[in-house]
Amino acid sequence: MESCSDKYKEIHLLHLTAAKFMDLKGTQLLLLFFAFLCSQVRKLNGDSIPGCMLIERNALLGFKAGLKDPTNRLSSWVGHDCCTWEGVACDNPTGHVVKLDLQNPHQFSDTGDLLLYNKWSLGGELRPSLLGLKHLNYLDLSMNNFGGVRIPEFVGSFRQLKYLNLSNAGLGGLIPHQLGNLSSLQYLDLVNELYFIDSVREFSIDNALWISHLSSLRYLNMTGVKFRDSAHWLQALNMLPSIAEVRLSDCDIKAIPVSLPHVNFTSLSVLDLSSNFINSTMPGWLFNISRLEHLDLRFNDIRGIIPPAIKNLASLNFLDLSGNQFLEGKIPGALWGLCKLQHLGLSRINISKNLHELDEVFTGCIKNSLETLHMWDTQLSGYLPDLLGDFRMLKSLDLSSNSISGSLPASIGRLAGLAELVSLDLSSNSLEGVMSEEHFANFTKLNFLGLSGNQLILNLTSDWIPPFQLQTLYISSCKLGPQFPAWLGTQENIHSLDSSGNGISCTLPDWFWRSFFQHIDYLDISSNGITGALPNFYSSTIQILDLSNNSFSAVIHPGIGKSMPHLKFLLLSANNLSGEIPLSFCQPDFWVLDLSKNHLLGELPNCWNHSSPITVMDFSSNSLSGSIPPSICQIPYLESLHLSNNNLSGELPLSLKSCVNLCTLDLGQNAFIGTIPTGIGESLLSLSILRLRSNKLVGNIPPNLSRLSALQILDLANNNLSGTIPSSFGNFTAMKVLRGTNGNISDYMNYNENLQVTMKGSDNEFSTFILLVIAMDLSGNNLSGKIPEELANLFGLVSLNLSGNHLTGEITKKISALRQLQSLDLSRNNLYGRIPSSMIALTFLSYLNLSYNNLSGKIPLGNQLQTFIDPSIYAGNPGLCGFPLAQKCKDDKTNQGPNAVGGDKQNDNAMDEEASEIERLYMSMGLGFAVGLWAVFGPLLFNRKWTEAYFRLIDQVYDMVYVTLAVTFNRFKEHNAAA
């Protein structure tokens, strides 16, 4: 059947001919005839309704039937005219469906709303009924969630497709090679970055040669697609003459050919290979791509120097080599001759360390084009050079996390070259001195200022009006107080402020809460001395609010959760807040809620539900009472629950087994009774920290706790637990790993989880370094029986405390396997026998307590044990003798001390073990000598020619030695006679 457009061509020819013989009215009649003919063609195609073909409408409805549409996004897909449906577009002349755009209208990003994204995502099946759209040239299903299904092979049948976007659509698995049939395709986006969503699977590609068949392709983005070894991706791309933009970030690419036989990238302008594992030098073929404008090689393992040939890339306007820690040497002078370069990233690479070494290369035409210079975490030292003022176009300068020292010269505010500066980040350096208004005089366009982590004093007068309008200000640890800076009130556009640790010790002014707070989305004024009552906050924008470690007082307003609808992080710890926890905190947007170290009363709210996204809940160190409400474990994403140091009571609820995502459970220092629920070991398989110390728990320790393979801190101390220590406790997988490589502890953005760990005889609060702590504390209970030898399998243990129980038996010699132990406390038990000499192998040990047992014999010396000079370590063991105790061993004839040698033979097992080692050494030497001797002389016994050659050699050597000695002896005699 001919299409309407085909008829139009015929009609148009007739119209040109007829126009010579017809007047205007005739022409109009001919056009009416054309319209009538088109309608007849469409009827023959099965659809008499303008704007939609019947077969294509049915194809769309069949496709919709397989979809899950929770928000009814496709509610407009009714009626006859499919060209008016949501996401559908038709070609005007022909009426064919040419475009299907079902992209999620609520895309998720770092600042996006995950709940909203999930709510609006399409899912279900991708049915082949879509093949009825034979004229489709545009297909977009991005930012949905199809549950990890593979890309259907039938997608390769849309031969007219020019645009295909399946990015972050919840698809996964091996990408079908049938996509190589799309010879008309110009744009292909298969980005897969939403790994944190449970149902999303990785994309992978085993052989990329099918890409070489996409002869029309200009744009390719496969960020997050995992390339398997030998995927031939470079060879495939090098066969595409029209390819202009290639983005292969985070693709697990491990190698890149250093050379190519022929470089065919005649149109390539953008190449992104960042965040891979490329471990070669910079490939030479790169410098033959003359049109290359954007080159991103960040965060690889590229090694060697930056080649001087980089000067060949004269069109470059973006170059980023950051994060390649094996790049070394100096920055080549050729780099500064790239006259079009606008962005230069050289962060975290091993280049020149002193800023003044860069003076000779901060020249050339680059200073007239460069807009972004990032050199953070590059171990730069020295002072800021004045030559920065030569960069007249510079907009963003990031020199943070270096060792830049000295004070900022006041002249920096007058440098004409910094007049265009929009972003300045000097955070985490060693800068000091006073900064005044003069430093900021010329920064009229500045909107980002980072000075945190320095020792600067901001001496700015109260009536100062800055020349800039900041959006972001990070000045933590700088001296600013005691008054809150009045000039902040002039910053009407600020949305992120970190003013923590500034020495502010006043009540915040009214304008701060009334106007400034209204439009901010990140506020950290923690670790100051700010006083006053906590106001009734209101902000429609705030997402992160940190007021911790201040002196705020009064009760928390009951409507606080509703007055900040987008709040995700609320940190109010270590203040003087009182009253009850408002029920409004059960509102559904909190991610992290920290109210610890206050004076809160009452019971825990029992209003949580499945819609709450809370991940961290910390109500520790208050005066809360009652029991744990069952609704807490209805929170689906809860990973960290801190309720320690309160007045909570009752039995540990069975509902705890529903908190299946918990990594940290801290219920210590309360009044809980009953037994430890066995459900903890059956259901909470992600637990890294279990802290139940200082309660009133009874009964045996459930052996199935050993199933918690991620557990690295187990603290059951100071309860009334009885029975034996389960031998299965030697099976804790994470405790067998050296120094806490487990990554399940909560660490979200600007929030670090805090935990109190008792070790080395005192309470210690850990935050950033909690991952390094592997500890077991069962002290202060009624445990009996022997210490299981299986505990010696926990090679990663840093602290072991079994004190204050009724344990019996000897200390196992296998304890020497715990080489990471820093703290060991076995005091106040009924242990007997000798202290095993193998304990001298515990070279990290800095705290030891074996007091009040029935140990006997000589105290072994050596390594760390020699440094323990406090006799109280061994007190209450009448049978012990030797240093550091005053009681000498009976047959010890030498002075006792840390350098003593000899002593009681029965107690000196270490020397016996050493003698045995020496005997084994001598035996092995003898055996080795015999084997070596046979290896030399054995062949001589069986090979006559070798034997004759060997003895001829011996005769020659003998003659040479004899002659040499005879001559030397005669000369010696003649010399003596002459004397």
Describe this structure in words.
- InterPro entries: Leu-rich_rpt, Leu-rich_rpt_typical-subtyp, LRR_dom_sf, LRR_N_plant-typ, RLP23-like.
- Its main location: membrane.
- The protein has 979 residues and is of the alpha/beta class.
- Helices cover 15% and strands 19% of the residues.
- Among the domains are: 4-44; 53-70 and 89-229, Ribonuclease Inhibitor (Leucine-rich repeat, LRR (right-handed beta-alpha superhelix)); 480-637, Leucine-rich repeat, LRR (right-handed beta-alpha superhelix), CATH 3.80.10.
- The strands form 10 sheets. The protein has a 30-stranded mixed beta sheet, with no helix packed on it.
- A hairpin with a 2-residue loop joins strand 46 and strand 47 (751-752).
Topology at a glance:
Blueprint: H1 4-18, H2 24-44, H3 54-65, E1 67-68, E2 88-90, E3 97-101, H4 114-120, E4 123-124, E5 138-140, E6 163-165, E7 173-174, E8 187-189, E9 203-205, E10 219-221, E11 226-227, H5 233-237, E12 245-247, E13 270-272, E14 294-296, E15 303-304, E16 318-320, E17 326-327, E18 343-345, E19 372-374, E20 381-382, E21 396-398, E22 403-406, E23 423-425, E24 430-435, E25 448-450, E26 455-458, E27 472-474, E28 496-498, H6 510-514, E29 522-524, E30 544-546, E31 553-555, H7 560-563, E32 569-571, E33 576-580, E34 592-594, E35 599-601, E36 616-618, E37 625-626, E38 640-642, E39 647-651, E40 664-666, E41 671-674, H8 679-683, E42 689-691, E43 696-700, E44 713-715, E45 720-724, E46 747-748, E47 751-752, E48 755-759, E49 762-766, E50 775-777, E51 782-786, E52 799-801, E53 806-808, E54 823-825, E55 832-833, E56 847-849, E57 854-858, E58 879-881, H9 909-942, H10 944-978
Parallel strand pairs: 3-5, 5-6, 6-8, 7-9, 8-10, 9-11, 10-12, 12-13, 13-14, 14-16, 15-17, 16-18, 18-19, 19-21, 20-22, 21-23, 22-24, 23-25, 24-26, 25-27, 27-28, 28-29, 29-30, 30-32, 31-33, 32-34, 33-35, 34-36, 36-38, 37-39, 38-40, 39-41, 40-42, 41-43, 42-44, 43-45, 44-50, 45-51, 50-52, 51-53, ...
Antiparallel strand pairs: 1-4, 2-3, 46-47, 48-49
